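Work Package 4 report. The design task specified in the project plan requires that, given a folded chain encoded as structure tokens, an amino acid be chosen for each position. We show below one input record used in the internal validation round.
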């Protein structure tokens, strides 16, 4: 506008300072000028007087208090925009606001007028595009809500906020100070432990909820949350490394799975006892495994994991399912440990087969012979659950009959035999309802006959034993290796009894299962045998009682002898390594006592004790002392809750060496359920969302989630029944 007033048409310009005085840069075409060549036009606001000058002359003559800002870089940018056909004035108006006040103000429209609203007190102030912000700064200095947020800073009140601290269980009055870093840390823990998707942190109402708790909450992006997760994973991993460095023996469980993107993953879990004799488990790795999943590939992946954690010399056993590739992997790992002379227990119990997997194979083979027996029940349940109206009618009949059962219909999953057991159990409790429903629905064609119900009852009774045993083996907070032998003996006894049943379908089912039983337990399993011996309720008594019933008459004594020899071998290994009791120190202590050093004469009392009491030889080993003592008999109420580890902890001073052997044996997991549960929870972990993440992110979330849940005692309920066995 000024060039036209002055009659300078060949020049274009831009006002770079709108205060007093006004300054205009003039330039011609696309030619660039040095500061010395620029022509300055100074226009005094409120006056028609103007004058021109060079930049250098103006710099020499302008008042020092003018506070004029001239940005040569912006002039160059205007040149470039002009070449592209962009109007410099329009570009200027679309630039981002630079004043710091706009961090605490927002532009709104109120009744057609644009206003600047304070983010603290929500007060509206005058706003003009390109206008001054002095009045906004003045408002911020006087804004009371803003002052309240400046606690702890140089400005604002110094009064602290009080809060109740309940982190240690008791409410305590403490000074509250908002810690942005702590908030971010707790946010990461919440998302990881409860498996929330990262995108949730950007949800509008999640932000509103957090700000309702504390107005100082600053929202973060999901990318930032992911980076915070990875940082915490690295920190938590280092802490766990230090803890595992002090563990003498660690047992492993592992299993292989595939995500919905066909990416193979290997989950490796470590099990050990802490200083309080509590059974602990930590997922060490959840890493992708490149196909083909051969035994060598599995062994190499496990070895890399152990080296990364620095525990390659502390592995006592590894529990795997019965895949042929796992057998090869165990053989390779066993050779590697043996070459380094780090094969514990002489390798006798290095490989532990997943007993839950074996039981599952047994039941699946048996059920193939009785599929037709339960077909009508399965089709009936499916027919009812496919229609809400049918299910409603069925439930109304249940209410009218006033049945005491709280269980409703469950449809089984063919690959999960425990769901078949649950389906039969619920259907049998509602048996009288099906016939009455048939009277109300003529399209219902799968009503089970009386014979079908009798067969279903026998199959259900059969499966109940396996269901109870599997649940017992799947425990993660108590030792299971000492419980297995007694349960397997019950299974064997049931198979023997059912084999004499006069129903053909029962005989066929029993025969199938006995073949599988003999295949896996035809030879004595040392883990289940030694674990039972180290349970003070059983000792060798359970071996002597159950082996004749499990193994053939001409073979059971050989297995009993193997157990005795293995016990002595393992005990001697611990005795040679653990030399805490020094016999020379004991003898020195004895010799230093003159009263004890004197040879004592026997009298009548000594002779009476010898003839009327059992004398314990001074050189008797701890294992012999333990076995010669009677079995421990807890009370009826304590029997089911008895914890063998607590007993050994209480008797660790009496059995110094044997108690350490019991620690390591009883910490061995006999199933891979701790690894398998990651996936069997209805696809809870590797769902569509997590499968879309990078493998390293998946590993960080799963591993750290497991660590934090263990530390805070949080349990994630399995969703198998909710997803596959929906109740009606």
């Amino acid at each position: 506008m000024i060039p036209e007033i002055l009659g300078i048409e060949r020049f274009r310009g831009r006002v770079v300072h709108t205060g007093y005085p006004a300054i205009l840069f003039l330039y011609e075409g696309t030619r660039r000028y040095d500061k010395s060549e620029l022509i300055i036009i100074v226009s005094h606001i409120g006056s028609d007087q103007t004058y021109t000058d060079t930049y250098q002359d103006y710099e020499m003559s302008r008042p020092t208090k003018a506070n004029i800002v001239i940005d040569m870089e912006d002039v160059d940018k205007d040149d470039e925009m002009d070449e592209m056909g962009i109007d410099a004035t329009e570009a200027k108006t679309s630039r981002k606001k630079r004043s710091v006040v706009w961090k605490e103000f927002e532009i709104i429209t109120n009744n057609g007028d644009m206003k600047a609203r304070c983010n603290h007190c929500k007060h509206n102030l005058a706003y003009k595009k390109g206008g001054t912000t002095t009045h906004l700064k003045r408002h911020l200095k006087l804004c009371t809500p803003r002052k309240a947020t400046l606690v702890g800073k140089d400005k604002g009140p110094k009064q602290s906020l009080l809060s109740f601290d309940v982190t240690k269980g008791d409410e305590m009055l403490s000074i509250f100070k908002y810690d942005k870093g702590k908030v971010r840390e707790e946010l990461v823990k919440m998302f990881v432990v409860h498996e929330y998707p990262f995108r949730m942190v950007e949800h509008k109402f999640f932000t509103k909820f957090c700000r309702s708790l504390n107005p100082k909450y600053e929202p973060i992006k999901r990318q930032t949350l992911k980076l915070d997760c990875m940082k915490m994973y690295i920190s938590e991993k280092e802490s766990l490394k230090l803890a595992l460095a002090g563990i003498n023996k660690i047992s492993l469980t592992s299993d292989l799975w595939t995500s919905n993107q066909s990416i193979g993953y290997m989950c490796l879990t470590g099990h050990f006892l802490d200083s309080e004799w509590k059974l602990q488990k930590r997922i060490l790795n959840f890493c992708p495994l490149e196909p083909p999943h051969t035994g060598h590939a599995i062994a190499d992946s496990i070895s890399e994991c152990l080296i990364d954690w620095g525990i390659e010399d502390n592995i006592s056993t590894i529990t795997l399912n019965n895949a042929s590739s796992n057998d090869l992997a165990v053989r390779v790992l066993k050779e590697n440990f043996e070459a380094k002379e780090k094969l514990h227990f002489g390798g006798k119990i290095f490989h532990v087969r997943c007993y839950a997997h074996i039981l599952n194979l047994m039941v699946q083979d048996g059920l193939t012979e009785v599929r037709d027996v339960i077909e009508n029940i399965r089709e009936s349940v499916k027919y009812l659950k496919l229609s809400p109206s049918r299910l409603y009618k069925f439930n109304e009949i249940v209410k009218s009959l006033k049945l005491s059962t709280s269980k409703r219909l469950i449809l089984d999953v063919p690959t999960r035999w425990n769901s078949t057991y649950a389906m039969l159990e619920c259907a049998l409790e509602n048996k009288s309802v099906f016939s009455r429903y048939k009277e109300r629905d003529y399209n219902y064609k799968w009503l089970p006959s009386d014979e079908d119900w009798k067969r279903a009852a026998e199959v259900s009774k059969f499966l109940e034993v396996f269901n109870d045993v599997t649940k017992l083996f799947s425990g993660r907070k108590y030792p299971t290796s000492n419980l297995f032998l007694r349960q397997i003996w019950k299974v064997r006894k049931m198979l023997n009894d059912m084999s004499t049943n006069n129903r053909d379908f029962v005989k066929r089912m029993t025969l199938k299962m006995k073949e599988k039983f003999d295949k896996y337990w035809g030879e004595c399993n040392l883990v289940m045998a030694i674990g039972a011996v180290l349970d003070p309720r059983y000792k060798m008594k359970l071996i002597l009682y159950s082996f004749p019933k499990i193994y053939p008459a001409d073979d059971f004594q050989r297995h009993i002898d193997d157990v005795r020899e293995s016990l002595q071998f393992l005990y001697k290994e611990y005795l040679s390594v653990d030399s805490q009791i020094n016999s020379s120190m004991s003898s020195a202590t004895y010799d230093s006592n003159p009263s004890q050093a004197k040879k004592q004469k026997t009298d009548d009392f000594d002779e009476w004790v010898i003839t009327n009491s059992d004398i314990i030889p001074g050189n008797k080993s701890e294992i012999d002392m333990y076995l010669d003592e009677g079995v421990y008999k807890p009370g009826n109420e304590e029997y089911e809750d008895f914890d063998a580890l607590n007993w050994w902890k209480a008797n660790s001073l009496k059995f110094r060496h044997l108690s350490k052997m019991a620690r390591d044996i009883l910490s061995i997991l006999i199933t891979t359920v701790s690894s398998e549960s990651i996936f069997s929870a209805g696809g809870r972990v590797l769902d569509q969302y997590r499968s879309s993440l990078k493998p390293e992110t998946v590993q960080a979330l799963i591993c750290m989630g497991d660590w934090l849940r263990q530390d805070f005692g949080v349990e994630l309920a399995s969703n198998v029944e909710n997803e596959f066995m929906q109740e009606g």
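The chain has a mean pLDDT of 78. Validation will be extended to a larger panel in the next phase.
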